[in-house]
Automatic annotation (TrEMBL):
This is ABC transporter ATP-binding protein. CDD domains: ABC_Mj1267_LivG_branched. The keyword Amino-acid biosynthesis does not apply. Coiled coil: none annotated. GO terms for molecular function: ATP binding.
């Protein structure tokens, strides 16, 4: 079996006595879409923060492509090909979709913000931004101010921003949150396209999306991984069903 692209070993995050993620060990294989599900407050977002470098861990190890990145900063992780998109809309409404992605390319590549750089650099940035937008199906909306995009298009824009640094692995925190049925279908189709060439770790509450997209699913309950398996086997797992007892979404 191929070496895992991302490996978490006994990762923990606590705030004083409150343990939010606890002995989390899991491996993400190259090319897979690995979903992390769990009831509200299970620690999913915290875990993504730990992996992306936004939050330091209190114990454990994070390996990416075989390298120990536990103590690297977020920009250092981004440089190695580990990127994330955000649950909270973090786009600049007055700038076009393309400018939003171009700024992300510039910021994440470590350069300072410069709206009027030299012409060839700007052309390169815009070219990369356009590629990212086309990849998420927003090419035709590149010049629209981001604030005028629909909610679903904003979620697609966030994905494009996530792609801006050409990651090997993309961490996605609830990319379907707040989308209507048609919009969510579009985002799911985009994720299906992306998963053919990227490794993805996906946190998502929409179980239809999770079970149709994921190669494997890990279930987090009270900060602990209680199962990692194929979607079919996770759905049948009695411990998982008990954790979701009364939750219609899982049935
Ligand atoms: N900075 C903090 N200080 C104290 N407690 C925190 C902090 N951040 C998160 N928590 C607590 O950690 C727990 C896990 O939160 P987290 O947001 O990671 O869960 P989640 O699984 O992503 O939840 P949801 O599905 O509702 O988004 C919650 O009980 C939360 O209140």
């Amino acid at each position: 079996m191929a070496e895992p692209l991302l490996e978490l070993r006994s990762l923990r995050k606590n705030y004083g006595a409150l343990v939010v993620t606890d002995h989390v060990s899991l491996s993400v294989r190259p090319g897979e879409l690995h979903a992390i599900i769990g009831p509200n407050g299970a620690g999913k977002t915290t875990l993504i923060h730990q992996v992306s470098g936004m939050l330091p861990s209190n114990a454990g190890q994070i390996l990416f492509a075989g390298e120990d990145i536990t103590h690297l900063s977020m920009p250092q992780r981004v440089k190695r090909g580990l990127a994330r998109s955000f649950q909270i809309t973090s786009i600049l409404p007055g700038f076009s979709a393309m400018e939003n992605v171009a700024l992300a390319v510039q910021a994440r590549s470590g350069s300072s913000f410069r709206f009027f750089g030299n012409a060839s650099q700007e052309k390169g940035l815009n070219g990369t931004a356009m590629d990212c937008l086309s990849e998420v199906g927003l090419g035709a909306r590149a010049h629209i101010p981001a604030g005028l995009l629909s909610h679903g298009e904003k979620r697609q824009l966030e994905l494009a921003i996530g792609l801006a640094t050409k990651p090997k692995l993309l961490l996605l925190d609830e990319p379907l949150a707040g989308t209507g049925h048609d919009e969510s279908q579009r985002v799911v189709e985009t994720l299906r396209r992306l998963k053919s060439r990227l490794t993805i770790v996906l946190i998502e509450h929409d179980m239809d999306a999770v079970f149709s997209l994921a190669d494997r699913v890990s279930v987090l309950v009270y900060g602990r991984v209680i199962a990692t398996d194929t979607p079919e086997r996770v759905r049948e797992n009695p411990e998982v069903r008990a954790a979701y007892l009364g939750d219609e979404e899982m049935v």
